[in-house]
Amino acid sequence: MHGPGDFELSRRGVLIGGAASVAATAAPVAEAAPGQASSAGAGTPVMAKVSFKVNGKPHALELDTRTTLLDALREHLLLGGTKKGCDHGQCGACTVIVDGRRINSCLSLAVMHEGDSITTVEGLGTPEKLHPMQAAFVKHDGYQCGYCTPGQICSAVAVLDEIRAGIPSHVTGDIAGKPAMSADEIRERMSGNICRCGAYSNIIEAISEVAARRKA
Question: How are beta strands 101-104 and 95-98 bridged, if at all?
Answer without folding.
Answer: antiparallel
